[in-house]
Amino acid sequence: MEPIDLFELREHFNRSRILLCFNGPISRSLIEEIGNALKNYLQAENALPSAAMDVFSVYVELTQNIRHYAMARGYDELQGSATVVVARDESGRYLVQAGNMVEKADGEALLARIQELSRLDKAELKAAYKAQLRQPRDENAVSGAGLGLIDVARKSALPLSASLAPMDAQHLFFSLRATI
Amino acid sequence: MNDLNIPGTQSTPCVTALREQGLLTMAGDSYPENSFEFFRDVIAWIETFLRDDTGPLRLELRLVYMNTSSVKAMMDIFDLLEEAHTQGRPVQVDWLYDPRNERVLDLADEFREDCTFPFRIAPDGH
Questions:
Q1: Chain A contacts of B72, Cβ < 8 Å?
Q2: Residues with Cβ < 8 Å from A146, sequence gap 6 or more?
C-alpha cells in the first residue's frame, strides 16, 4: 500500500481552506458530535450568528438526509458512509459539501431535482417549501429529502450544485454543494 | 392527564407542560433524527388539554435551531392551536428569541404567517 503522506494531506486541506471533513460510516451521535465541533469552529472564526446557523443547518439537513436514505435502502454501515466537507472559498463564503452512495435511478432523480430547484428564485423556493410542508407525511418515502433539500436551497447564496460519479454497475456517488 | 417534564439534550429541546396553568414551554435546539417520535408526547399532551380542559392554552417558546422535520412537527402543533382558535378557544404563542440571531426571528415569523391566533415574537428578556 502506498504510504499516506500526512503532510501532503494537511497542505491539501489548507490550500482548499477545509475547516472540517469527515469520511466514513455516520451515526446519529456522530452527526451531533461533528455538528458540535462545527459550531465551535464557526464561533472561533467569529462567524455571524446567522451565518453560523445556516452552515450548521445545511450540515444537519444533508447528513440526516444521507442517514435516512441509507436506512430506507437498507444499506449497511459502510454502504451508508458519508463524505462531508466544510470549507471557505476565496471570498470567505462557506461551502458545505456532502456526498454518499446512491442507487443509479435515485441519483439521477436527485440530480434532476437539484437542477429544478436551482432554477427557482428565493420567493419561488419559499413557496415550494411551504407547499412541501403541507404535503402529507409519506412513511414510505425513500429519502424524505423533499423538505430538507428545499431548505438547503433556500439557505444557499448560490444555486446548489450537484454531481454524480460512477461507483459500480448499480451505484453512483452523489455529491451536493451549498454556498453560504 | 399528567404534566410533562422532558429534559433537553443536545438535539432535543427541554419541554414542560403544566395543566393547571395551561402552559407549555419548549426551549433549545431541535434536530432529532426522528422528530415525529420526539414530538409525539408533546402533540398528545396538547390534544388532550384542548379536549379535556376548557381553559386557555399558552405556548412559551425559546426554540433556536430546528431541522426541517422538527419544523413539520411544529406546524402540526400550530394547526391544532389554529383549529382550537377557530372554535373560540383562547390560545396564544409567545416566541422569545436572542436578538443577536435574526434567523430565529425568520423561523418564528414564517410560522406566524400561517396562524390567525395571537402569536407574539419578542426579544428575550425585554
A1: 133, 137, 147
A2: A132, A135
**Using one digit for the tens of pLDDT, what is the confidence trace for A70-115?**
999 999 999 999 999 999 999 999 999 999 999 999 999 999 999 9
Size of interface A-B (CB pairs under 8 A): 46
B34 is in which domain, residue-wise? 4-123
What total number of domains does chain B contain?
1
- Inspect the interface and report whether the beta carbons of B103 and A151 lie closer than 8 Å: no
Closest in A31, A53, A130 to B103, CB measured: A53
pTM of the model as a whole: 0.94
Residue of A nearest to B31 (CA): A60
> Taking the CA of residue B121 as centre, how many other CA atoms within 13 Å lie in the half-sphere pointing to its CB?
18
Q: Which amino acid is at A102?
A: V
pLDDT at B38: 95
* Cα dist from A92 to A19, A48, A153, whole Å: 12, 12, 19
What is the DSSP annotation of B34-56?
-HHHHHHHHHHHHHHHHHH--S-
The CATH number for B111's domain is: 3.30.750.24
